[in-house]
Design brief:
Blueprint: E1 2-7, H1 13-23, E2 26-34, H2 42-55, H3 59-66, E3 72-77, H4 79-82, H5 94-113, E4 117-119, H6 132-139, E5 145-147, H7 155-165, H8 168-171, H9 191-200, H10 204-212, E6 216-219
Parallel strand pairs: 1-2, 1-4, 2-3, 4-5
Antiparallel strand pairs: 3-6
Helix pairs in contact: 1-7, 5-6, 5-10
Length: about 220
């Protein structure tokens, strides 16, 4: 099918999205964004556990799928960057800025490995950054296609798929991406305001490059 960079959060959704893509032939390079030291290492540990589960899966399905998974997880620390978006004048757009930072960094990884697409576990309307009004604001920061295999599924269906894959128990835990998030979120992002806010704290590309320069890797 092609090559994609998979944004792996440590939650329930992203391993299911990755599995659905690999099952039909997408080669996947996993990428994780760490919120340490604001949070603990649990999200990264869950990400590693689910990916290693795929590597060790038996049977025809497991063999077919794991052959498409790159054995290196790239981990990018983003807590320092995301703390900049907790100011009162931009906090309600925090999750939109977060995804814009993520997609910008993921594009750097894609250029390294020759990927044409990014892959996410986004599900329409499940949280504020995944409303129709915000998906476009998130997507516009990359020139790559975005694969969203779970976009039309509800949470119960995704949970059932995770249980069938054997990743559900490995993925359950607190949503650490919410650690710095606001109580009330913007559901329809304004491009001009988003860009002005990002410029005010240093610029999206500069922030993304700063985080990217501190990346580490984990062998699967």
């Amino acid at each position: 099918m092609g090559v994609c960079v998979g944004l792996m959060s440590g939650g329930i959704d992203s391993p299911v999205a990755a599995a659905r893509a690999m099952r039909i032939g997408w080669d996947l390079y996993p990428l994780h964004f760490s919120m340490e030291p604001v949070t603990g290492p649990e999200a990264q540990e869950r990400t590693v556990a689910s990916l290693r589960h795929f590597v060790g899966m038996q049977g025809a399905f497991g063999e077919k799928m794991c052959g498409h998974l790159d054995r290196t997880l790239v981990v990018v620390p983003v807590a320092e960057i995301m703390a900049k978006f907790t100011e009162p004048w931009c906090h309600s757009e925090y999750f939109i800025h977060m995804k814009r930072v993520f997609n910008t960094i993921a594009t750097y990884r894609a250029k390294e490995v020759g990927a044409t697409h990014l892959l996410t576990g986004e599900n329409l309307g499940q949280v504020s950054s995944q409303t129709l009004g915000n998906l476009g604001a998130v997507e516009e920061v990359t020139d790559l296609g975005v694969l969203r295999p779970l976009l039309g599924f509800d949470k119960s269906a995704i949970t059932d798929m995770a249980r069938a894959l054997g990743t559900y128990e490995l993925s359950i835990g607190p949503e650490v991406c919410d650690a710095l998030g606001p109580k009330h979120t913007t559901t329809v992002g304004n491009r001009e305001w988003l860009e002005r806010s990002e410029a005010r704290v240093g610029g999206l590309e500069a922030l993304a490059m700063q985080a990217w320069a501190s990346r580490t890797t984990v062998s699967l």
